Request: fold
Amino acid sequence: MPRMTRLGDITICPMSETDLDGVLAIEKGSYPKPWAREHFLDELSSPYAFPLVAFDGNGTLIGYICTAILFDEAEIRNVAVSYALRNCGVGRLLVEKVLAECRNRNASYVGLEVRVSNLPARALYERLGFKETGRRPKYYENGEDAILMECRLDQTGDN
Reply:
């Protein structure tokens, strides 16, 4: 059984090339069609992207999120948490960090796509202010639909 990670012990910082082995291990354990190293290298070299990683108190990489901003529009492109630590709040911390950074960079909204079947992620996004805005039929490799979600940042209130 993995050691419990307290949320206060988690550090979120910019992703670097030295993080990619850990990122790829989580990626491969999270998606049926994982991103290749080149995808993450593209994120690291893009002037619009700001990929982040999360480390536990022992310095183990436990999650990541890739986001890009162009003008006032932001998009979460990829996010995953180590299997042993899912539903422990790590994903929430990563998304909250992205929302705060997008506000700091004057984004009006943050969009994303999520599998219809990924109920835990959809519930998390809804708790953080995302609303369903559409659907991409048969978007994923297995024919599953993608739900389009958006969090408005330029409104007062909970968003």
